[in-house]
Every structure is written in C-alpha cells, then in structure tokens.
Write a structure and sequence with these properties.
Chain C: This is Xanthine dehydrogenase, molybdenum binding subunit apoprotein. The complex is a heterotrimer of chains A (336), B (167) and C (729). Chain A has 336 residues and is of the alpha+beta class. Chain A contains 12 helices and 12 strands. In chain C, strand 25 and strand 26 form a beta hairpin. Classes of the chains: A alpha+beta (336), B alpha+beta (167), C alpha+beta (729).
Chain lengths: 336, 167, 729
Amino acid sequence: MRPFDYVRATAPDDAALVSGQIIAGGTNLLDLMKIQVMAPETLVDITRIDGLSDITTEGDGLRIGALVTNTALAQDARVRAGWPLLSRAILAGASAQIRNKATTGGNLLQRTRCPYFYDTSQPCNKRRPGDGCAAKGGEGRMLALFGTSEHCLAAHPSDMAVALTALRAEVEIRTPHGDLRRIPVQQLYHAPSDRPDRDTVLEAGDLITAVILPAPLVGSRQGYRKVRDRASYAFALVSVAGSIQMEGDMISRAHLAYGSVAPHPWTDGAVAKMLEGQKASDALFARVADALVPDRAPHPDTEYKRRLLRRTFIATLRQLTGLADTSGTDIARTQS
Amino acid sequence: MKTTLTVNGTQHEVGHDPRRTLLDTLRDDLGLTGTKKGCDHGQCGACTVLLNGERVNSCLCLTAMHDGDEITTIEGIGAPERLSALQRAFVERDGFQCGYCTPGQIMSATAMLKEIAEGSPSYVSDDLDAPKLSDGEMAERMSGNLCRCSAYPLIREAIAMAAEVKE
Amino acid sequence: MSDTFTMDSPQPRLLDQTGQGVIGTPMNRPDGPRKVSGQACYTADAVTEGVAHGVLVRSTISRGRVTGMDLASVMSIDGVIDVITDPRMIRNPAQGMAGEAPVQPGDAVHYHGQPIALVVAESFEAARDAAQRLTVHYETEEASVTPEGTSASETDDPETAGDFDAAWQAAEVKVDLNFTTPSQAAAAMEPHAAIAEWKDNSVTVHSSLQMIRFNKKELADTLGIDPSQVRILAPFVGGGFGSKLGLGPEAVAAAIASQRLGRPVRVVMTRQNVFDCVLRRSETAQRVRLGATQDGRITAISHDDTVSNLDGEGFSEPVSQASQFLYGADGLSFTQTVARIAATPAGSVRAPGEAVGMLGLEAAMDELAERLGMDPVELRLKNLPDKHPMDGREYSTRRLADCLREGAENFGWAQRGAAGMRREGDWMIGMGMASAARSSMLVKSASRVRLTGDRAVVETDMTDIGTGTYAILAQITAEMLGLSPERVEVRLGDSDLPGASGSGGSFGANSAGSSTFLAARKIRRRIADLLGCAEDDLTLQGGRARGLNRDMALADLVQEELEAEATIKAGKTAESHFSSGFGAHFAEVAVNEWTGEVRVRRMLSVMSMGRILNEKTARSQALGGMIWGIGAALTEEMQNDQRDGHVVTRDLANYHVPSHADVPGDMQVLFLEERDDWANPIQTKGIGELGISGAGAAVLNAIAHATGHRVYDFPALPDRVIAAMEVEI
C-alpha cells in the first residue's frame, strides 16, 4: 500500500467524504491497495457513521443500510422469507469470513476481477484510461459476454448485485449537498465506453446510504444459480438470478438477471416478454435462451459462456417453474 | 497512530502505520504468531480470527479501523497443555498435516459451530431457516479456509467430533 | 563418525520382533498440540530483534537485461533502507537435490516475474510499497513463451523395450489419444520465507525448506562461502509438495541483505511472488497409444510427451514414468520433448511424472477397456507384467492385483452398469477407477540417537513438512528401544544435525526412518552389552531391558548417555529389484447435465505401500494425495499469458486449489499389509505421492462413465465437460 491518511467520518455530511476514498468492509479495496491497483491518498472510514447498519421495513419492502454486512443481510429473517434469492446469492459469494466484513454498499462497488486489472505490469484501461487492454488477446476466461467496449472486456463479479437487479432493488445515494436520490441498481453502473475506469455513476462525495428492496412478486419462486470453476469460494463463470410468478403452469411474471457476463448485472427485457404469459416448457426456454445469448463472444476465451449461459438459463428456469426433477444431488442449489 | 485492541482478553495500545493490517499487528507488534499469513488477500483463510465474536480475515482488516474492538486469536482458544475440545479433536483426527492453515481452520470452525447453532444459513442449506450440522453444510461453510495438505475430510471429522462433545 | 550401511541385501524384519508395539499404530502427532494452538514456529514466526523487512522485486519483461533502476525515487520513501541487487542473487529456486547454486543471472532477465532486486525497509509496508514503485529500466529481447511457439526444443531418443512399431502394427484393438494438462502450482499454504542473520562470519538462515543437507550446500555455493559457515533452520515447514526442495531466491536475498546491512533481514514472498517465481509443474501434451489383442492382452504401449522448462534447468517432468513399469507389452516406446520457453521455470511438484502422466495413461486404459468391451479392472488385472517391462528387474513386492480386487469389492464396482445410464434429477452419476503407482527410493541419510536412562533424543536435519516425520521417528526409536513414544524427543530441521535425505520423492520415511532405525539398533547393541547379553537375546519393552535372566529398568541401566549415529544408502537391492507403491483408486462423481459441473461424491483408494509406520499420518498422506488428484482432474489450472509468458493466475483466487466443498466426506483409504524386504531395513515404501498418482484419472474416468463422453484436456472445467457432452439442447 502507498501511504495514506486515515480519517474517520462520523456523519454522512463529513467533508472528508468528498475528497477521500471511502472504506467500509475493505475486503476488495484493501486487496487492491496492497497491489497498488488503487492508491488513495486519504482513506475515509465510514463504519462509525450511525444509522447505516439497520434493515428496516419500508412499505412491503425493506430498506437496507449501506453498512449492513453481507452476513447480516443474508440471514435476516425477513430476507430469508420474502427474498430468498438475495440470501442465496449473497451466500454463494466469497467466504463466511469475507461476508462478515463486506457491506451492502461496498459489495455493489466491488471492482472487476479481471487478472489484467489486478496486474500492474499489464496495461489496463480500467486502471489508467488510454493505457490499452491487455486482456484483449490475453487469457480471458473470466471476461464479459455482453456490454463490453473496445477499451474494456471486464465482467462485474458480484453475486449480490445480480440478485438485487432481479429483485428490482434501488440504490439510495446521498449527494454531498445532502440530497437523497434513488436509482435502480443496474443504473448504478456505467457501461465501459471509453472510460472503463468509471465503474459507476457516483460522483465525488456521493455516498450509498441504503438499498431499497421492493416487495417481492407475490408467490414467486426465487433462485440463484451460480456456476464456477470450484464448488465454493470462487467467482462465477455465469450466474442466473430469477424470481418467477406462476399462474398454474403459465409464467405470469419473470424477473431475471445474469451475473459475470457483463460489466454490470445484465438484464434483457425481451426475455421477460417472451416468457410472460407462456406455458413453461423446454421448447419455450430453449427459444428464449437463444434470444438471450449473443451471436458471438467479444473474446475467444468467453465463447464458452454463450453455451454455459444458455444452459444455466434453461436449468434455472426449469427449476423455478417446476419442470426439473429436483430429486438429485442438489449440491449446486437454486431453489428456495 | 494509536489503536486500542482487546486481544484474548488483554487490552493493548499499539502504535502503528495506518497501513498496518490487523494480521501484521497481531504477528509483529503483539508477537501472536499463531495467526498465519497465507495470501494477504482474503483468498486462503489462514489469518482467520474472531472480531467481536465473528470470524474475519485479519489480513483484510486495517488495525486503524478496529479501535476498541475485541479480537480472539488461536492463542486465546487454548495452549498445548490446555487445548479446547476442538483443538483436541484436530489432534485426535489428524485434521492437519503441515499445520500452517490449522489456526485459521480452528478459528473458523469455532465461529461456524456458533453460526449453525444460531440458525445462520449457508448456500447449501436445504431450508434457509433451519440449517443442520451435516458434512455438506460444514464443507460449504469452511470453504473460506484452504488446506493444501488437503486434510479436509479429517478437519470436518474433527469438527463433528468436537460438536458432539459439546452437545 | 557414522559408518554407512549399504542396502545390498534384504534385511530381517526387526520391527516385527520388537515388543513395544507402537510401530504402525495410529499415534497422534507429537507436534500436534503445538500446531493446533499456534505455537509451532514456522519461518516467519521466528522472533528476531531488530529485523528489517525485505520484499522481492519482479521483472516485468520476459527476456532481456536490467539496465538501471531509479533508486532515488524509492529511497526517499519513509522507512526504506536499501535496494539490493547482487551478482549472487539467484534466478529461481534450486532444483531438488542440486546441492549447488542455481543460475545466477546477474542483470539478465529470463522470464517475467523473475526476482531482480530486494527492497529492504524498516517495515513490511514500506518495503512492499517501494518494491512495487521501483522503476526498472530494461533492454528487452525477443522471447518464446509457449511450447507451441518456441523453436528451441530438445527431443530425447525414445526409451524402448521390444519392438513397439511392430506390436502397434499388429495390434487388433488400438487407442491413440492426445491429452493435455496445464501447468500446476504446489501452492503450499506457507509462502516461501527466510530470515537471515550473520554472526562472526557465519550466517544462520531460517527458511521454509524440505532438504536441509542439500540446501546448506546450495546456499554456501551461492554465497561463495564454506558450508561450515552456513546454518539452516526449518523445524516446521508449512507445506512443500516439492516447491521447497531447493534453496529459494528469498533465502539468498535475505542472506545477502543481512550481510550488507549488518542486521537480521526477513524476506517473505508475497503470494504473487510465489506464483511468479517458484518452480511450477510443467504443462504437458501427451500422446498415448495402446494396442491389444481382442481378448484384452496389451501388446503395445507408447507414451510420448512434450513438457517445458526454462533454459539451464535440468529438470523435465518425467511424464511417462509409471507407463514404463505399470503394464507389460511386447513393445514399449517413450519419447519426451522439452520445449525451452521464457516462463517461470518448472520443477518437482508432488509426484512429478505420475501426477500428470497417469492422467493420460489411465484415461487411455479406460478407453481401451471400453473399446474392448472389457471391465476396466479386468483389463488391468490381465496385464500385470512379471518383471519391470523396461529393464527386467524383479518387483520387490507388488500387491496391485489385490488392491484392484479389494477396491472393486469394497467400492461396489459391480453395480457400475453401463455408461451414461444413471441419473438423479439433473445429475448424471458415474464410477471410474485407475491404478496407482509411484516408484519408491532410498536416499542417503543420517540420524543420531541418544539415550539416557529411559529418555531418547533423535537428531537429524530431516524435515517434517506435514508428512509426520516427528511422529514416525519417535515411533521407530520408541519401538527399537522399548520406550513409550512420549519418552522420545525428535529434533529436526537443523543443518547442524546429521544430514538426512530430506523430504522429497516420497523417500523421507524410507531414508530418514532407516537411518534412525540403524542408529537405534546400535544403541540396542550397546544396551545388550551393558546387560551382558547378545543382541538377539535382548528384549526392550516398557522402559525395561531383559535378557539372559536379567531384567532392569533402562533408567538404572543406562546412567551415562549412549549415543549412536548411522547412515544408510542404497545398494545392490535397488539394482536387482524395483520398488514401488501400488494401489487402486475408485471414484463416484455427479455431473450436472446442464452446467457441466462435476462433484466427487465418494472415493476409495486401496494401497499397498510397504510397512505402514503410523496408520494415522499415512492415511492423511494418502487422502491428501487423492484430493490433489481431485484438484488436477477438476479445478487446477495455471494460466500463462501467451504473449509475454507472465503468470495470469498468480493468486489463490485465480489458481483454484480444491476447497472444502470440492471434497466429499466419504473419502476412504484401505492399506493392504506389506513388507518390502528389498527396499530398506524397515521394509517401507514411499507414501506421500502414491495417493495422487492415478487419483485424478479415476475422477476423469468417472466423468466419462457418467456422461458417456470423455474430456481430453484437463482439468475437466464445466465448459470442457459441456463441450465433451455435445448434447444438443
């Protein structure tokens, strides 16, 4: 780490928030600071700001303070009951140790795990715009399938953000002027365009104060399916988050999001349109999957993700609509 | 800068660089070298300690952020002549080989047993509301602790053995 | 001085006649309480007053020369003491048993990630900061970084027996298969580390190393000093798996820095350093050809491979090692090509050769069985040769057939059924098996045993890298001297003690166990003398000596310390007999038909590996190896950038060693009773590597059985399994 000044903020209007780098759980930030991928001059510790660590009921939904840990959120009784997708997605990520430290706000802001971003000997536009992208032409197994630009092919690694996207959650942001605004989770993220260094729309001094979880689809079946190179403690190759409402054997609502395939949790409005009002069937899912998956991958090493996303999508939909025989070795879990 | 920590019941005031991690504070400032550095990036679990009763990777904690916090390390669990039930079970079942990841495994397991007892779910819990102490549950919950010697099945046998003793 | 015993003839089974009854028992490790309480002192734990901290700087080019460093920019960083480059620094760790300095490249750079300087500071944070910020100027040269892309490769003459070409031509049923395995990392949990301190022109180095006797010479040669000026300490080693066989750049850098600064210096590799510059296991490209008669007699075996290494490294992964002695044929042929590439050099990682070679061989055997319509166990049983097929040596002992039969029986192999038929929901279930084989060796080794009253001390520079050396040397000594093992103190990992084999190649227990046995036997003779009886009439048990009507407590009999040192080395039996551990692995897997994820549900390995010295630590070694097999089959893949050769998967988030969740609880090991009289006087064989040898193949064969489709490029990651399944959905 480069030397930095450590400042402890005690209130959301602390002036240090404008100029410094915010740290909460620090599980990704310290990781990156140790290898000087990030080198803030001032670190502003927000963990002692009051009022950001609670989960409260808001209408039929929940307001989740930005400092609520991943563990606390996943095990909250209301979340387990009404939004099991969120519990499962969080629990699919990282390790218990990391989830005990990682926060709701911080998880949304975690940075890509592209190994070229992590290696300062390699050019990376996300680290330094204009440097070039070593991942192009490099080893690209973990890169994105959608939403890339010629400047950056990196994927967003979060599990939680994918679940929140499928659940239509919003992020509450406090500006330095004290205004609060709410935006849908997927709008938090910038498309990489020519400034892949800017992961999100947050401006200097903006503070994520909460995530707002709206009421779940009534009677929905929810699931999070994560496929990875190791059975646990690994980032997703592909993940699918789904909340499906059925009327008999007909899909009435389908809220879906896809992880590790784009620079942010990926959604595709056409998919829901193709599913809703239809009778669940293998033929339908195969057809919709074809529409979901792009014709080609931006990097030869992610070509497999087309096939894997397609299959994972179908498998998840089959489970959530009751088509699948779930009697088997349910080691890779989807259903709640 | 200065930070006050209570480690294994003893209060310490440590002077340190703001960059100091809790791991390095424990090892190099307090001489508690039972907590190990395996990766320094939260990718192996060897540095697991209890922070206010919950397991964390001490390599991913800045000491500066933990003023007033309570830390438990392996030294606070039991010394060779006064081993805890879990430590004894690790010895009995050979739940280690080289021993380097072992303090982390034991700290993690200590917390894990409490988490299951409190009903905290895992990714593989059949029922998010009623997790059980099965081998599969333990395997998922302990996955943040790598063991390259690969004592995994024996580590879980040891944990199960200690859990039975407790019950 | 210790006289040397040469293993020229089979030795009596004294350990079966002694009366203490501790040999072979599942005794807890004596070092266990310290390990589970954080009191075992690993290298970086050694408390050293006034220590300075060093961090290695890596090269960021693939080949060329360092032309300069902007020292001023980092010397101004608060706490930085020095930036050290030195012609004595080494390019990479020594290969196992080198006993001399590795390549000392001066300002030359031979691979991306090579240590090129050491930054020393008052704190670790300052040193790491400066090491990362140091600007280095290079003159770069063209470099070939992939085996496919390099023009520099060396192909050995084939090793042959019989006429392979004729046998292959005539074979009625053939498989001709290509396999690839990626580079793999040992990834011991303890990063490579050293603390060096000079006093009176001598250097003491704490370092995490496996072979102290060799490492001492390596350090002396590297520094240009006499070995008598070097002391190396490694009482606890946090895993090695081959990666700590040889002296490493961190120890050399620490020694040089400490000498220069006149204070102790600690250098602990960052995890990224470990991936960048510690010897990897080479990637392999393998071609396996097996020919057989219609009724399943194998007539032709060929296993050709390409591996890689850096120029100047003598090691090449011996891929076809087990293929040369496991099965017989009329004609056998083995050819290796070594591609010279500018990338992290390759060296020994747990079971070099077998660990990857048996994936190819045993998958090919599985496919041959399929082709023949024969049970894979039967195919193996039918093709066990009478003698070593390449050199005609007798097998010392070989219970492979028993392992295969016992394994099949205990695993429920008979229920296996046809491929691709068993399902549980979305999961396809399959069973697979493979043979296990890993040759066993005896390496020169010395130990000293001292006995006063009923307390013994064993002293040797042997290491315990998790293998259980502390336990087994205590047990051997206790058994020989009739003591409870608690009365035996074992001192290891100090180069001032008699020089042992070190831990490597599964020969540690054979070698250091034997030298300890021989030293203890000398003490027995001295006790017999004291008691006034012949050695044959002596019984030592429970701290008492009995013989010729005398019965005395050792505490009374041995009032003055008895000390004996012994050395063993291999002899004629190694020329007349071939010693190897054998076994059979069985695995059951579930493969998700949609996602290609594979989960191992259970595994059983049956092994015959000579006398088991400690049933508990032996089982741990076996299990560890089997789980490494799971890693090789399913998760482990080191990626190097194809342009500059740098390690892309340079941390434990990207290099996937198996986690708890990858390993089922149902992991069984059965040992078959065996004594290898030709191996050594304690009748043991190596254990540490047999578990991995073939284990991954059992998993891969189970995937083929579950899905009806085989993966040829390992590990079987989800996308590769999907590609193999070729199921249109």
